[in-house]
Specification:
about 40% helix, single chain, alpha/beta
């Protein structure tokens, strides 16, 4: 498909058809983000989208999942998303799910009836950067929502039948608030019971505010030991009924995929064993490589 700029997608969308419907991110103000620094937000014309769908129907007519690009495609109105979904189903009849990035504010601007209509059209699997349940962290990260707002909007999604990934970031409370960040984030996750929990750890690329704040000592990042402590504290406080834990992002000290609550004890055992293995490095700060991967692990 025709795509402009760097293309980002969640790792579990590797086999999805990527369809561009917007350029950039409508918020584009998160303290830690450097994904779309020079991409002015705009909506793709419907004619372009339909042409790409026509092309996809010739190249991959049997595709079952579509991921809408760029940064937060769920910002589109319910009417535009319905148009796109209907066009996809006309030309790609085997598509079951139409997924995309979304923000809490994107949900807030849609009515309950609109959310149900979008669900009926196969829209689900939203990838939502909630990041934290701690208001102090959310404010510093400039997410544009509070924990209470996140809870309210995510429960509305569930009521409408729309599945989503709750994305959380270890370390976004910094070295001084890692305990509070773990506790508040666990409380929020427990309250909304997401289908999928995506875990990463905080890292910053040159060009974003967080990178400058880390360099200038304004934001004190967590050590390797604190990140492990936060991960253990978060997992230990999760009380989930049926959630996929997707923690294989390279930014994590302990990458793992699991089911909760089924694998909770095993997950905690792995984190504790990793802490013993890294005993001599617990006071070090992570040295990051590509995609935030920890080199000095």
């Amino acid at each position: 498909m025709n795509m402009t700029g760097i293309v980002y997608r969640p790792p579990y969308e590797a086999n999805s058809l990527l369809l561009q419907v917007t350029h950039g991110c409508s918020h584009n103000k998160c303290t830690f983000c450097s994904m779309y620094p020079d991409v002015p937000f705009k909506i793709c014309p419907m004619e372009e989208i339909e042409a790409d769908i026509e092309e996809a129907a010739e190249i991959c007519p049997d595709v079952e999942r579509v991921f809408l690009e760029h940064g937060d495609a769920f910002v589109l109105s319910a009417d535009r998303l319905s148009q796109i979904a209907e066009a996809i189903h006309r030309k790609l009849p085997k598509v079951k799910t139409i997924a995309m990035y979304a923000s809490i504010q994107n949900i807030k601007h849609k009515t309950d009836a609109e959310l149900r209509r979008l669900c009926d059209l196969g829209i689900g699997g939203l990838d939502i950067g909630v990041e934290s349940g701690l208001d102090a962290a959310l404010s510093y990260m400039n997410k544009g929502h509070t924990a209470a707002e996140a809870k309210e909007q995510l429960l509305r999604l569930t009521k409408a039948g729309i599945t989503y990934s709750f994305n959380a970031i270890l370390g976004c409370g910094g070295a001084d608030l890692w305990r509070e960040n773990a506790d508040a984030t666990a409380d929020l996750i427990n309250a909304v019971q997401p289908h999928l929990l995506f875990i990463g750890s905080l890292h910053a690329q040159p060009g974003c505010k967080l990178y400058r704040d880390m360099k200038n000592g304004i934001f004190k990042e967590c050590t390797i030991g604190q990140l492990l402590d936060e991960q253990e504290r978060l997992i230990s406080r999760l009380e989930l009924k049926d959630t996929i834990y997707f923690g294989s992002h390279p930014s994590n000290i302990v990458p793992m995929q699991a089911l909760l609550p089924k694998h909770k004890d095993e997950m905690l055992r792995i984190v504790r064993e990793t802490r013993k293995e890294l005993q001599g490095k617990l006071g070090e700060y992570p040295v990051r490589g590509g995609e935030g991967s920890i080199i000095n692990r």
